[in-house]
Specification:
heterodimer; A: Rossmann fold; six-stranded parallel sheet; 20 helices; B: alpha/beta; globular
């Protein structure tokens, strides 16, 4: 089984370090007022729990409200059905050109390849997503999908793919991207976006962006399709206020993002502008199954990315090493669950369980506990792997046996050290040394064996 | 000379040495007993103790961890306060032991006893500072060479004891502690992670040693045992010259 290793690309590693450091600083700024932070956390957690305790009636209410205003709501059981639904809506409207807002849920269901295969032209409009779409890469980070590419690399990429060389300066690069995207916004037959939150009682969708592209996507083309994970809704608009503030404080240290859009109806109701058609596709894709099991807590996740930015493993390995759509601690948990422990790097093991993720998570999700639970689920599914641990348990629960092992250890270590590398039996000692560590000096007896059992008074 | 507040009856505690200190880290076991005795604590060494099952639990082996945990309960069944140099192990005992035992039909009857025992189990600095109410320890002194402290994840986050180690270290006579940059960042040990992901584990190890050196330290004091084994054998293999010691060794006045 492949395992995560430190990112080998020096530029990527530097970008990773700089980006996560900036986000950690912003996160710290966002929670500078501990009283407010605790208040928001309690409100948000309560709102999420209220919804997740019984999502069905809330979803029904959300659908009823939205449809009452002329929108259409669809429920997709899995990724394939979600892709088919989106494609079906586009085809029915005769839409060939699509502009997209940044959406991890769309990444999860692998929407773009499916649309492109059906002849639909898809343009990502979030600057980071625009870059990685040109590069043909998956996101490196759930907040900054292209953060692993420095400005020089972006300038080269633009020159190659857009046919125009501009200085490797953020302003020049953004201007070029904007000029390219403006045309696509105007030509688009449809816009596809994600959804950050929904308020069920009022029937509104919330989309949080920092670049303004989200508003073009959701208002300019005649058709808007919003794709939402089943865990995203909250009971009411009042819940949304606190949860939104918590998200943006945790993610970027600000009480609000640059743009927060509230969508409740297609055009026509008030005579105002906007898309003539609004569709919401609610994606289950394993979420109901997760909600019914012992790992349900991961559905509290707001995708703020704090756990990625504080994780020592993510900070060295980077997003692509995970081989999954969602990287970092939340990504390891969610990917294992969504893919039902599918092959790939064993993500449940890819953590030191240091607990920084739990400490910094705005919802207080016990990510180390969930990773531990996944490790347990893994061992239960593979009983053959329990042989060695069973032996270890014998030694570690019997004083006499433990004493014998302690006495034999120095001889064993000596043998291992003398053997040429190729002849050394596989085992943890190999990996211990591979991590740049000497084998420990074994004293040759347990400490307890040579101590008096009880103190007199000193 | 002695800052011990009068406690009647005089404190008495069983030392849970941990399998790691018992097998490989004898100076830590020695230092724990010494620092406790110096504060007037009578130290018992229950003879059947071995391990709490922490590392097996971290590999996902619930059944094996429960069997080891059951042996731990039997070894410490005599009661009284239990003190251990590992915050990670104490956190495991408090968070998981009773639940692990309840999950195994043949061991479930031990769960209530386990809950009682872990309720009186303390990590060393926690015991000294919170249970005994001590801050200036008899016999403790700061390292004479420049030093930093790595607040180990097991002690400071899993157990949540983020105050006692600092309070005890701040009160040491002698050279004051230097600030360790990004101190809260893991050293890369992580139990099974140290061998399942050797490249990442080794890279984090290198970063920790480099951070200590950048702070001007020659001595790196750590709060837990896994980090100690990992960082000290790492410093040895890399010939970094950094002396890596456990906090108990400083509190016992054994680091010069």
């Amino acid at each position: 089984m492949t395992r995560l290793t430190p990112c080998a690309d020096d530029r990527q590693r530097q970008a990773l370090e700089g980006f996560t450091a900036r986000l950690r600083a912003m996160h710290a700024q966002g929670l500078a007022d501990p009283g407010l932070w605790d208040h928001l956390r309690a409100r948000a957690r309560n709102a999420k729990l209220t919804y997740l305790a019984n999502p069905a009636p809330w979803l029904d209410l959300l659908a009823e409200r939205l449809e009452g205003r002329g929108a259409r709501v669809h429920f997709a059981v899995d990724a394939a059905e979600a892709r088919d639904m989106v494609l079906g809506i586009l085809q029915q409207a005769g839409a060939r050109k699509v502009v997209k807002g940044k959406s991890m849920t769309c990444e999860e269901i692998a929407l773009n390849p499916a649309l492109e295969a059906a002849g639909v032209q898809v343009s990502e409009t979030d600057l980071g997503e625009f870059i990685i779409q040109l590069a043909g890469e998956p996101p490196f980070h759930i907040l900054g999908p292209a953060m692993h590419r420095d400005r020089g690399q972006v300038a080269d990429l633009f020159a190659e793919k857009l046919g125009q060389r501009v200085p490797a300066e953020p302003e020049a690069l953004t201007k070029l991207a904007r000029a390219t995207l403006r045309r696509r916004f105007l030509e688009a037959d449809a816009g596809i976006s994600g959804v950050n939150f929904a308020a069920c009682r009022e029937g509104a969708l919330a989309i949080v962006t920092n670049e303004g592209n989200g508003r073009f996507v959701t208002s300019l083309p005649p058709l808007h399709i919003a794709v939402m994970g089943l865990e995203k809704p909250l009971p009411t608009l009042a819940d949304l206020g606190a949860t939104l503030e918590l998200l943006t404080r945790a993610a970027i240290g600000a009480p609000l993002s640059t743009y927060s859009s509230w969508l409740a109806a297609p055009a026509g109701l008030s005579g105002a502008g906007g898309p003539r058609q609004l569709h919401l596709v609610v994606v289950d894709n394993g979420r109901s199954r997760i909600l019914g099991g012992k790992f349900w807590e991961i559905l509290l996740c707001l995708r703020c990315s704090s756990c990625l930015n504080f994780c020592p493993v993510y900070g060295l390995a980077g997003g692509h090493a995970y081989g999954s759509v969602y990287p970092g601690p939340m990504g390891s948990v969610l990917s294992c669950l969504l893919e039902d422990l599918a092959p790939g790097p064993d993500l449940a093991q890819a953590s030191t369980l240091c607990g920084l993720c739990r400490q910094e998570c705005p919802l207080g999700i016990d990510l180390p506990g969930l990773l531990l639970g996944l490790r347990q689920a893994g061992t239960e599914a593979a009983p053959a792997a329990n042989l060695l641990p069973g032996l270890a348990a014998q030694v570690l629960s019997r004083r006499g046996l433990f004493d014998v092992v302690c006495r034999l250890a120095p001889a064993g270590i000596k043998v291992l050290e003398k053997l040429p590398e190729a002849l050394r039996p596989p085992g943890p000692w190999r990996e211990w040394r591979a991590g740049g560590r000497a084998l420990p000096n074994a004293p040759g007896h347990p400490w307890l064996a040579r101590q008096p059992r009880e103190d007199g008074h000193d | 000379m002695n800052h011990l507040q009068p406690i009647t009856p005089p404190p008495r505690a069983s030392l849970f040495v941990t399998c790691l200190a018992d097998a490989l880290l004898h100076p830590v076991a020695q230092a724990c007993r010494k620092v406790l005795r110096a504060q007037g604590v009578t130290v018992d060494l229950p003879p059947d103790q071995v391990c709490c099952g922490n590392s097996l639990h971290k590999t996902g082996q619930a059944g094996a961890a429960a069997r080891v945990g059951a042996a731990w309960v039997r070894a410490f069944a005599q009661g009284g306060d239990i003190v251990s140099p590992s915050g990670s192990c104490v956190a495991h005992l408090r968070r998981n032991l009773a639940e692990l035992l309840s999950g195994q039909p043949e061991l479930a009857r031990l769960a209530p006893q386990a809950a009682t025992l872990v309720g009186r189990t303390y990590e060393l600095t926690e015991y000294l500072q919170r249970r005994l109410g001590l801050t200036r320890l008899a016999g403790a002194k700061a390292p004479t060479r420049p030093w930093v402290y790595h607040p180990s994840c097991g002690l400071h986050r899993s157990l949540g004891e983020d105050q006692a180690p600092y309070a005890l270290l701040e009160a040491l006579p002698g050279r004051p502690r230097l600030e360790l940059p990004r101190a809260e960042r893991c050293c890369g040990f992580g139990g099974p992670f140290s061998v399942s992901h050797p490249e990442l584990s080794g890279a984090l190890l290198g970063d920790k040693l480099a951070a200590a050196a950048a702070a001007g330290a020659q001595v790196l004091v750590v709060g837990d045992l896994g980090c100690l084994l990992h960082l000290s054998t790492g410093a040895q293999a890399r010939e970094s010259g950094m002396q890596v010691v456990h906090i108990s060794q400083v509190l016992a006045g054994e680091v010069v």
